[in-house]
TrEMBL record, chain A:
Listed name of the protein: ABC transporter membrane-spanning protein
Membrane-crossing residue ranges in chain numbering: 34-54, 94-117, 138-164, 170-192, 204-223, 259-280, 316-334, 363-385, 415-437, 443-467, 474-492, 517-538
Keywords: Membrane, Transmembrane, Transmembrane helix
Organism annotation: Streptomyces sulfonofaciens
NAD as UniProt keyword: no
Domain of life: Bacteria
Claim: Secreted is one of the keywords in the record: no
From TrEMBL, chain B:
Organism: Streptomyces sulfonofaciens
SUPFAM superfamilies named among the record's database cross-references: P-loop containing nucleoside triphosphate hydrolases (SSF52540)
Protein name: ABC transporter ATP-binding protein
Keyword Transport tagged: yes
A single MF term (Gene Ontology): ATP binding
Top-rank lineage group of the source organism: Bacteria
Chain ranges of the ABC transporter domain: 5-230
Membrane topology, record value: Peripheral membrane protein
InterPro entries per the UniProt record, alphabetical: AAA+_ATPase (IPR003593), ABC_transporter-like_ATP-bd (IPR003439), ABC_transporter-like_CS (IPR017871), ABC_transporter_ATP-binding (IPR050763), DrrA1/2-like_C (IPR025302), P-loop_NTPase (IPR027417)
Amino acid sequence: MTALALPGTARTGGSRQLAGTGALLRLALRRDRVMLPAWVLIVGGVVATGSGALKTLYGTAAERAELARSMTANSSLRSLYGPVFSDSVGGLVAWRYGVFGAALAGVMSMLVVIRHTREEEETGRQELLSSAMVGRRAPLTAALLAALVANVAMALVVTAGLAGEGAAGALAFGLSIGACGMLFATTAAIAAQLTESARLARGLTTAVVGLAFVLHAAGDAATDDGSSVLTWLSPVGWTENVRAFASTGTVVGGSGERWWVLLLFVAATAVQGVAAYTLAGRRDVGMSFLPTRPGPAAGRMGTAGALAVRLQRGTLLGWCLGFLVSGAVFGGMTEGAADLVGDNEQAREIFQRLGGQSGLTQAFLAGMVGVLGMVAALYGVASVLRLNGEESAGRAEPILANAVGRVRWAAGHLVVAYGGAALVVLLGSAGLALGYGHRAPELLGAGLVQLPAVWTLTGVTLLLYAVAPRAATAGWAVAGVCLAIGWIGPALDLPQPVMDLSPFTHLPKLPGPPVQWFPVVLLTVVAAALAAASLAALRRRDLAT
Amino acid sequence: MTTAITASGLHKSFGRTHALDGLDLEVETGEVHGFLGPNGAGKSTAIRVLLGLLRADAGAAQLLGRDPWRDAVELHRRVAYVPGDVTLWRNLSGGEVIDLYGRLRGGLDTARRAALIDRFELDPTKKGRTYSKGNRQKVALVAAFASDVDVLILDEPTSGLDPLMEEAFQICVDEARDRGRTVLLSSHLLSEVETLCDRVSIIRKGRTVETGSLADLRHLTRTSISAELSGEPGALDRLPGVHDLDVQGRRVRLQVDTDKLDAVLRSLTDSGVRTLTSTPPTLEELFLRHYQGDDADAEAAGTRPGGGRAAGAMAR
């Protein structure tokens, strides 16, 4: 019996290795009872309802055929969404949401798997569980099963939502997204064996998902039928190459759905799964293959501000890179995007509402600056919530028991939040200017004008935190609503009072006409007032314990 | 003698929970003061009020003669705090955290820092996430004892330490006392409190029930006596303060309120004493008396000579 308990020698354990899997799976699903349905319904729902939006915008078959033709012809848009394989409604939905849906399913699976494997080990909870009747392979199995449940649910939502556009296509599309999710679930399972920290494991997996996206982007920029080697190296490219709905409408590529591509997912998932189980069998609980490096024996940090920068600098660097690259991609797309939107009257209108002006290139640029600003608000919210994280984890208390006032402590993080948001927006604008190749000063200025709105949303979150720390994460909801208004509002033609709820609505659409300074100044004042009120409130309340 | 910490009538509620219900506390400058109480008695809440992290609903608190809420930052230059549950940043090394805390308090004695790291056998290069509970506590202890401060506030600082490290900790507290520091030590380990503390306060349900030196407190409790007499025992049951009397021929076992000991001994020697064992009350007994059973204890506290209010008065 003792020999069986040794890692690596446990070959004959059989079903015992999986003892307790059912209980662990129930525990995982119970813990994720909010997160998983939210992911499935939001990602699956957006994809599934995509057909309605598409029919509104491109009502006739002729319009859709024209859209399919021009989208496939444009290499920069191809690199984002992949090529169009069919001009049917289903085919266009699969084109528009396929690679993003697949990548998001991958992110969801990663979060689930890491949460129930490495994070459990890192926090020490796994030790307690493993001391019970729990087999050596049960935790990983339960995590992968939880991911399987989520991905099957997402595939079902997508398939059911699009079934009206062709059952075969809907099934192929649903499966291609769910299968990609499962593939990345096993990637995460491997990453969870490699690192001692859940955060690093998530970072590794995200990098793999990002790499898959970049490979597809590079491959699809080069070819217009998804046949590039680079595309075939990417699981996200496989989703696109399933060619869901290619059996409907006017087929661009030739044949119908390519069901056999799904086998690639199965094979790759199996290979990665075996690798993860093998690695898991060769290590002890809590240990990892990539060792944790020791740190310095003495520190140089001497202020709360330095600590805040140290804690947030990695995340900020990631955001900076992301914005620079996204900006450059948007910039590169500008000319082509304006050309092709020009053919569709309704799309042109939407773009003009989004960008607020007549010149389409200008409208596109303004729209992209707006998108960068809105996403930067998410950075601001996340960064400010680090204060809440530090406080609720009990790490703020010993800092504040030193000669550090609350305002000084908070200020360190706020400099990173507000300043970081400015940096991120500026880098995004700089990327936009680089990709577009002209009008750098105007674009940088347009980015700066976004800041009052970014800071206002950041400030709302800060105020929530300062007044009611338990409600602080509601800042995400506020930012989410404003983003939704800014993103979908123009397409849905929402009434103005609703649009006015978002601070971004009030900003002048730049680059373009002369700047309306009043709303910019007013929002700056609002943002400053929110920050001041928050700091005053923070000084008055009890520290959460 | 001046007082480093005073609190009188502190009240603090969280929703419906009354964490502090009129807490009194006095810690004199230069003493090591034990702060005892069961889980949830309000020890940590009281400490957080003293650190200005929480604001009391009512009552007054002073730390080094100043208001801990209003003058928090100034005061914290002179105070080092070790929380009961130390959480560290996952990606910062222990050494970095020690130095950060030191600088944020306004100074760290580097020689003492090195000596303490040695004494606690701490590896300062490890990252926060890889430390065990005991090692996380050592990080906070090294940072606190290496700081040049007047007051050390330690909230169950040894709950994760092994006996060897516990001893190292006791040496540190002794050294701090020798340097004239004031130490408020909240603890569950009675032996630790008995070894280290000059005076103790016992709190229960947010209220101070006993305060005084260990000698004072012992005085208010019962001593166990067992004796073998050469003659028939006298009328011991008529003496005041005698409890649990058990006479078997010439063998006598009894408990007596410590301040009534004299009369009992006189009666015993009248009968002639062959052997005598007298056991002083342990801190455990003191402790248990205040911890056990809610209702029974509340009643008993009122009738006993060593009830809470009397003890508080005597200590002052």
